[in-house]
Amino acid sequence: MSPPDYRAMLAVAVEEARLGLAEGGIPIGAALFARDGTLLGRGRNRRVQENDPSAHGETDAFRKAGRQRSYRDTLMVTTLSPCWYCSGLVRQFGIGTVVMGESANFHGGHDWLRAHGVEVVDLGDAECIAMLGDWIAAHPQVWHEDIGQD
Amino acid sequence: MSPPDYRAMLAVAVEEARLGLAEGGIPIGAALFARDGTLLGRGRNRRVQENDPSAHGETDAFRKAGRQRSYRDTLMVTTLSPCWYCSGLVRQFGIGTVVMGESANFHGGHDWLRAHGVEVVDLGDAECIAMLGDWIAAHPQVWHEDIGQD
């Protein structure tokens, strides 16, 4: 089997983030893949669109993937370093790999995940950094709400 | 202000767990309260009922509570020690207190939460222990799926 194409996988998460942006939402997207590249689920932050504080990109993608018997050989691909909520999801369900577009705008729980055996890849993607960075600068209040900062 | 009545709050979470049991689901319930006792949201595990692996009791109650500006003065009341996914939720959003019915059937992330400044109360409730314990004994496979054990 050829190695997973992280950039191609990230493109799906970025597409979700762009959809969110077009809807007026926080531009963070994610997708859950099997190791062979099969897309299992894709999702995006929908706090603003659906008034749903539980819909982070990663949890939305996880939800859309439905019930899976094992997550060991799955990859959670996300435009941003996963927050504690999403990092907890990865750890609890034993998702094997996290691929993140960036960790410059927000440093979540990915060090903790790495310390607990999860493979973590940071692509340092310039488009992800710019898209969310611009959004945060324009909407600091909603951003702080989304990461639970009073 | 009188101190929160943890037992009365737990009764709401237990009611949710019983509803889940009646629906054929995993009997775990939760509710998010303001410190003055106002109920903000209540929910239950709905993995089986809705094929939704993201609907744990705590995340469901959090979702039902809608967008809140701050969680510092809220209490997450749950029939069971919160798993890593739900513990991550508590930490990220700064929920001040976790009240759990029991931690005998499952020991989640509550020590970690305590170490990070969350007030954690374990009521050691016999009904919670029996309800989930009986269910796990009868449905070990779905239980292992719910906590991400292959």
Question: Could you characterize the architecture of this molecule?
Answer:
- The structure is a homodimer.
- Chain A contains 7 helices and 5 strands.
- Chain A has about 150 residues and is an alpha/beta fold.
- Chain A has a 5-stranded mixed beta sheet with strand order 2-1-3-4-5.
- The longest helix of chain A has 17 residues, at about 5-20.
- The first copy, chain A, is globular, with a radius of gyration of 14 Å.
- At the A-B interface, helix 3 and helix 4 of A face helix 3 and helix 4 of B.
Question: What's the gist of this structure?
Answer:
Two copies of one chain form a homodimer. With 150 residues, chain A is of the alpha/beta class.
Largest interface: A-B, 34 and 34 residues
Pairing-aware structural class of the strands and helices of chain A?
alpha/beta
What's the rounded overall pLDDT mean of chain A? 96
Could you state the oligomeric state of the chains shown? Answer: homodimer
Cofactor (chains A, B): Zn(2+)
Protein name (chains A, B): tRNA-specific adenosine deaminase
GO molecular function, one term (chains A, B): metal ion binding
Pathway (chains A, B): Pyrimidine metabolism
SSE inventory with pairings:
2 copies of one chain form a homodimer.
Chain A: H1 6-22, E1 29-34, E2 39-44, H2 47-50, H3 57-64, E3 74-78, H4 84-93, E4 97-100, H5 110-115, E5 119-122, H6 126-138, H7 140-146
Parallel strand pairs in A: 3-4, 4-5
Antiparallel strand pairs in A: 1-2, 1-3
Helix pairs in contact in A: 6-7
Organism (chains A, B): Pseudoxanthomonas broegbernensis
Main location (chains A, B): cytoplasm
Domain CMP/dCMP-type deaminase (chains A, B): 4-120
